[in-house]
Amino acid sequence: MTGCPSRARDEELLLAKISEAAGRQRLGRRRFTYPGVSGEPRPGTTRCLVLLKAWCAGVVVVCAAAAVGCAMKGVVLAAVAAAVVAALSLGVLVFVQLGRSSPRTDPNARLDLYEHGLTVAVDGRIHTVRYDATTIVRDGDGYTLTDVDGERIVLRGGAERGEPRIRSRGEFRGAHEWGPEIQHVMQR
User: Fold this and answer.
1) DSSP state of 43
2) Strand 110-114's sheet: what is its strand order?
3) Cα–Cα separations (whole angstroms), residue 14 to 72, 114, 157
4) Mean pLDDT value across residues 101-114
């Protein structure tokens, strides 16, 4: 049996939904597409996290053993110090683990610019914006728009080519391209 891999099939379905939403609002021809910022760690980050986790786990074990040994010999101050260091290392270990397990961005997020508007696919929803029916507010590092359903959307630039990383919904690559394009269209 042959067929598309799951990821490719998901992308095809997303593109069909985006195209259907754009057609329903008569946005015209698609001009540009910008992907969402990937939540994948930078190369080398995973290795550093593994080493940090291993070090913290080792410190926890050694300090726990030292705390038990000191307590058995009656050296209370050393036992308490070893227990505190073990607890702090365990806290760092839990913090690092929780930080890596939470998704940072939507892997299917994308921004599509059309002749008469744009679509934003994020968090499983497709927002449609018509340029002639919205206001766009530039607010520091992003743009706030209102979609055709009256919902506010915030678009931000992602970390690429030295741009600052801002972890938020609606974070897209190429802000140095799509930002001025949106401003230019609104000035017409």
Assistant:
1) T
2) 30-35, 110-114, 117-122, 125-130
3) 63, 16, 22
4) 70
Q: How far apart are CA 51 and CA 69, in angstroms?
A: 27
Question: The whole model's pTM is what?
Answer: 0.59
DSSP label of 36: B
For residue 166, give the DSSP letter. Answer: -
d(CA 174, CA 176): 5
Cross-strand partners of 125: 122
Which tokens sit at 133? 């029916």
Q: Which pLDDT score, from 0 to 100, does residue 152 have?
A: 86
Reduce the DSSP state of residue 75 to 3 states and report it.
coil
Q: What burial letters (b/e) apply to 74-112, b meaning 16+ CB within 10 Å? A: eeeeebeebbebbeebbeebeebeeeeeeebbbebbbbb
* Res 41: pLDDT: 53
Query: What pLDDT digit, counting tens, does each position of 149-170 carry?
Result: 888 888 877 644 434 333 335 6
